[in-house]
Amino acid sequence: MKKRLSIVVLLLLIVSGCNGGSSSSSDSSTTVTSISYRSEVREDVDQVLLDELHGAFLFFYETANDDENSPAYGLIPDRFHTHLDKPGTVSSIASVGFGLSMIPVGVEYEWISYEEASNRVLKTLITLENLERVHGFYYHFLSMSTGRRVWDSEVSVIDTAILMNGVLTAGKYFGGEIEQKANKLYEEVEWNWYFDDTTYRFYMSYKPEEGFSGSWSGYAEQLMMFVLSAGSPTYSLDKSPYLNMKYSSILSSKTDAYDPFYLTWTGSLFTYQFSHAWIDFRNIEDEKGVNWFTNSVNATKAAIEFSKLYSNRYKSMHENSWGLSASDGPNGYIGPYGIAPNSGSANVVDGTVPPYGAIGSIVFTPEESIKAIKHYRTYDKLWSKYGFKDAYNLGTVDGYEDESIKGKIPEGGWFATDIIGIDKGISALMIENYISSFIWNIYMDIDYVKNGLEVLGFTPISEGDK
């Protein structure tokens, strides 16, 4: 009887460990505690969301370099070519950041064992330790086989930030040696080196051959950079870059469809999503009462309204097909796909809609997002073994012409052949946050993040203001 009871207790401990937790122990082993980051789970979730989530996990796990003798072990491709059924040869470090965040999700859904997951993460962090860095920052694009810089790519501050989000998320979840390595990688990022203290802005890019160029001025996807840099115990910045961003940003006007929100340069919806994949802004505000979650809700409503207005021009833009954002299109990859209003008058519109636009906004507009996701699923050509492909375009309505896509939309519509890692990543993390707040719960329990938000002046919203 005692032996049977001991076995039951052991099994319970194993199960509670797989429920996600970190360890504050100083030994080198990977240990777990009874902390649960996924204790409240939404029921009756639409199957299409679960299918997309599982497909995204498989993309990040199956396409990663799993050759343990490779210097690029754990790197994840920027793209997967569905028409060739093979991954690309180039990794994006941002894709790795999203992929590391998805590994705990795989454990929770029992798609992989805790042991297999922790082994993958630990060896990936060892790879990251050995890759070339510049003051702690990583090159944007790397060879999937060698881990070396490709395409003459830049040392990227935003993509390093996304990578660090994944590193810290995995570190907090698994604890032990993994958390120690994750923390060390983060503490080695010299945020103050990438910062122009004459303009109080982060530089946009750095290449050893050219030096720094450009700067991050107004609001975009870079909220995570302010939090990570403010929370660093080694190379920290104060709240001046965050405040400068706000002073440099433009607030939209109020309409019948949405309240005012801070505009981004092109109106691409991903700019209102990426930081929110990890940082739970729902119940916190800055010193001036700005709530960035509400800002993204209003931006998403504007995106929906924009597609409604353009439904008389493009067949693939309407109330159930919206969310213009950087993606592949009939003319190749178009970064400025986006809506009006925007702050740069630089948006491109040709009827191309990426599913991740609506999926990545599911926490902001759940009802509208789910309707759109169900609509996208009616197109078999938009689906793959890893879930939705990157984008689609059904062409123009009768009586309207767009020279930019003339002759480029096949009968039945144009459908992307590729899956892009960062687009798949934002879809997956936001679906899981919608289901359980899992990623939010892990990330917001990281001391660096707590410290960063405190330095920036964020405080809980009082009950009366919610």
What can you see in these coordinates?
The chain has helices at residues 2-18, 47-62, 93-108, 114-130, 157-174, 176-187, 223-231, 240-247, 292-309, 355-359, 366-376, 421-436, 438-443, 447-456, and strands at 79-81, 86-87, 90-92, 133-134, 137-138, 141-143, 195-196, 201-207, 211-215, 284-285, 327-329, 332-334, 383-384, 387-388, 392-393, 414-415, 418-420, 459-460. By secondary structure, it is α+β, with helices and mostly antiparallel strands. It has one domain (2-465): Glycoside hydrolase 144 (GH144) (Glycosyltransferase). Strands 2-1-17 form a 3-stranded antiparallel sheet. Strands 7-8-9 form a 3-stranded antiparallel sheet. β7 and β8 (201-207) form a beta hairpin. The radius of gyration is 22 Å and the shape is globular. The model is unreliable at 1-19 and 22-34 (pLDDT under 50).
**Proportion of strand residues:** 5-15%
Biggest β-sheet strands, sense, barrel:
3 strands, antiparallel
Uncertain stretches? 1-19, 22-34
Helix content: 25-40%
What is the fold's blueprint, element by element?
Blueprint: H1 2-18, H2 47-62, E1 79-81, E2 86-87, E3 90-92, H3 93-108, H4 114-130, E4 133-134, E5 137-138, E6 141-143, H5 157-174, H6 176-187, E7 195-196, E8 201-207, E9 211-215, H7 223-231, H8 240-247, E10 284-285, H9 292-309, E11 327-329, E12 332-334, H10 355-359, H11 366-376, E13 383-384, E14 387-388, E15 392-393, E16 414-415, E17 418-420, H12 421-436, H13 438-443, H14 447-456, E18 459-460
Antiparallel strand pairs: 1-2, 1-17, 3-6, 4-5, 7-8, 8-9, 10-18, 11-12, 13-14, 15-16
Helix pairs in contact: 2-3, 2-12, 3-5, 3-12, 4-6, 5-6, 7-14
